[in-house]
Amino acid sequence: MKRILALTLILALAVASLAGCGKKSAEKENVVYVYNWGEYIDPETLDMFEEETGIKVVYDEFETNEIMYPKVEAGAVAYDVICPSDYMIKKMIDADLLQEINFDNIPNIKNIGDIYKEMSNDFDPGNKYSVPYCWGTVGILYNKTMVDEPITSWSSIFDEKYSGNILMIDSVRDAMGVALKYLGYSLNSTNEKELDEAKDLLVKQYPLVQAYVVDQVRDKMINNEAALGVIYSGEAIYTARENEDLVYVVPDEGSNVWIDSWVIPKNAPNKENAEKFIDFMCRPDIALLNFDYITYSTPNTAAQELIEDEDIRNSKVAFPDDVTLRRCEAFIYLGEEMDELYNQKWEEVKGQ
Length: 352
Description:
The protein is of the alpha/beta class. The chain has helices spanning 15-19, 23-29, 43-53, 65-74, 86-94, 114-120, 172-182, 192-205, 216-222, 233-242, 271-281, 284-294, 301-306, 310-313, 322-326, 336-350, and strands spanning 31-37, 56-62, 81-82, 131-143, 166-169, 209-213, 228-232, 246-249, 257-262.
């Protein structure tokens, strides 16, 4: 949802062949099995890892957390390294699907900024199971020629004066999260009264919305089809290059900061190789290559300093300051019962 999905594998491997690999054969072959999002790593870094370590990378891709989870849960394929999103990491921890990382084998963890480790505490208390890889925020993209003044609050997307010019995100947790933050609540609220207030706010907003979108918000804003819309920061960086009138902001009330992190499944056949792979990805030069390739923000502060383009290196969209980040929250998994409740509230909003 926050990145381009690939249709083909970087290194193709049939699932059947993966499933047939046992622990002994994997160790004998000196491999590491990696399961990641599509187009979410620079292929060159995989070649470099193989050349420097002698460990073969067997690489597989998934399109969504929800596709990845049952495959890992079933255990038919024993991966060594996976890159889930924040809330899914919490779900995997709760389901006892992950093992703790030995950080003595990850010396390059020092390059990951403290603020990102703090944010990871929301879904991985104590940072025992995960290492941040990529991240971003959710905010408002607005056209400065189509609004009365600079946008600083979520109130603008609920303002009647922008009726027909608002693009709302078509995602239950994101939409409910926006409403909850505007109301002063946590976007991980489990309080039904607070959820009802958020739902009522979204119901009131419904007739003002031009369209409920996710990826389409980018092109609509570039083409001046709306005054403002809810968008992911990675997309906002692209839109600003295409239309100089577009400005991205994380509202004063706070928002979501999402983090995708490396984890090691409990049934990983090659934990030592997995930790070597994660440590390699935390190296500043490698993190920089991946940032340049996928364009989503890196939590590697040493890599950030190596970015040659000053506009990108100093971008508050790509790298918001600590003050901004501290008013943001990561989504956490709230359990099946709360998932159903959130979906119910969202259906009441969209079912008008």
